[in-house]
Amino acid sequence: MRRISTRGAEFRKVTPNGEAVLDSNTIDVIVVDANAIARMYYEGAYNESSTNAPVCWSSNTRQPDPNVTDRQAPRCLDCTQNIKGSGQGNSRACKFSQRLAVVFEEDLQNIYQLQLPATALFGDANRGWMSMQNYAKHLAKHDTSATMVVTRIIFEESYIPRLRFRPMRVLKDAEIEEVGELKSKAEVYEAIAMNVRPMTRHVPFTETDGFVFSEPKTCIDIKGEQYV
């Protein structure tokens, strides 16, 4: 499976033929599909190249999935792995993430997986560069899907490099049709599936933005209902 690595605050194309560092701190892609935001807890320090399955995970961010055999807590809200400082530094050991299936603007046929960490999902906008949650809301306000625009991704300059997003242009009709035909491909399913559980189809970009993250852990779903 092809994927885009962001290790070391560099964009890298990882393919069956090897790995290549891109000579730019920005990439222009089209989002073909996406899974819901999830939580994953790995033992030890996170290693992007590791193929080990997480110890505990949640596909709805509220409680561990039914097939987790080593649940860290009945609810994510009560979990000790969800406390600041349980991970490296002041971070949480259990982390939010989201998987995207994307294609490059100049290559609409080869599908890549891009896994977004929590630092890419949440946070305030800065001079037009948005976190993924804010970006999805921005597109929804303009009645536009992320599958219909070219998205530019950069590493925001800070003490912790963070991915940020901005729309560049609306796709042409022929491009929209070509991208739409990709959604049924097995490579798209593989790119966004959590390989530790049966796949549940979910396309958050066509349903506004999933949920808004806040402290304390109160989530707001797309119907405006609160839950913990």
Furnish the topology, listing elements before pairings.
Blueprint: E1 3-5, E2 12-15, E3 18-21, E4 26-34, E5 38-41, E6 56-58, E7 94-104, E8 107-117, H1 118-121, H2 132-141, E9 149-156, E10 162-170, H3 173-182, H4 186-192, E11 219-220, E12 226-227
Antiparallel strand pairs: 1-2, 2-3, 4-7, 4-9, 5-6, 5-7, 7-8, 9-10, 11-12
Please describe what this structure looks like.
- With 228 residues, the chain is of the alpha+beta class.
- It has a domain of 146 residues.
- Helix content is 14%, strand content 31%.
- It has four helices and twelve strands; from the N terminus they run ββββββββααββααββ.
- Strands 4, 5, 6, 7, 8, 9 and 10 form a seven-stranded antiparallel β-sheet that branches.
- A hairpin with a 5-residue loop joins strand 9 and strand 10.
- It is globular and about 50 Å long.
- The N and C termini lie far apart (35 Å).
Give the CA-based shape.
Answer: globular
- Estimate the mean pLDDT confidence: 83
Number of strands: 12
Structural class: alpha+beta
Largest sheet: 7 strands, antiparallel
- The termini sit apart by 35 Å
Radius of gyration: 17 Å
Number of helices: 4
Order of helices and strands: EEEEEEEEHHEEHHEE
Into which percent range does the helicity of residues fall?
A: 10-25%
Percent range for β-strand residues: 25-35%
